[in-house]
Design a protein that fits this description.
Layout lengths: L1 H6 L2 E4 L4 E4 L4 E3 L5 H10 L3 H4 L2 H7 L24 E6 L5 E2 L2 H11 L6 E2 L4 E2 L5 E8 L10 E2 L1
Antiparallel strand pairs: 1-2, 2-3, 4-5, 4-8, 6-7, 8-9
Length: 149
């Protein structure tokens, strides 16, 4: 059965029980016909190749990807999950793939912590951002429930 999943570019992940689409790099919801439908709609897998797949998936009793625990921070990258590059606020660890969003966050919530320097009182926001980070998450583009790898 595991070989059948691999032939469809699906990874049965353990110990965090999940089905990961290796082409997309994220865990799929395993309810009803979701996995088979994903393969058909996103990857053009013919119905004949997907026959019986949803029954197999349902026997695994997989949790919703929203319920999966985040992996430990700074752990080795998961080989089947997509990588996202981004940054984090040094004060609260808010993560984003947008430095502009983090800059607005800092100006709004941590104005008092940002040192003003220079003749014009320029704010050195980069001192409050940890950048060039690589993240992974169980769900597609889910930076808020991600971990640093």
């Amino acid at each position: 059965q595991i070989q059948r999943l691999q032939n469809l570019h699906l990874h049965y992940n353990l110990p965090e029980s999940a089905i990961i689409c290796m082409r997309c790099g994220y865990a799929l919801k395993a309810d009803a016909d979701r996995v088979g439908r994903h393969l058909g709609e996103h990857h053009g897998v013919p119905k004949s190749a997907r026959r019986g797949l949803n029954s197999l998936i349902l026997t695994l009793s997989l949790p919703d990807p929203d319920a999966l625990p985040m992996r430990a921070g700074r752990s080795a990258p998961h080989p089947h999950l997509a990588l996202q590059v981004g940054a984090a606020c040094r004060h609260c660890q808010l993560r984003s793939t947008s430095l502009e969003l983090l800059s607005r966050h800092l100006k709004k919530l941590y104005k008092d912590k940002i040192k003003k320097t220079g003749a014009r009182g320029n704010q050195w926001l980069r001192d409050h951002i940890e950048d060039n980070l690589t993240f992974q998450s169980w769900k597609a583009n889910d930076i808020h429930h991600s971990w640093i790898v």
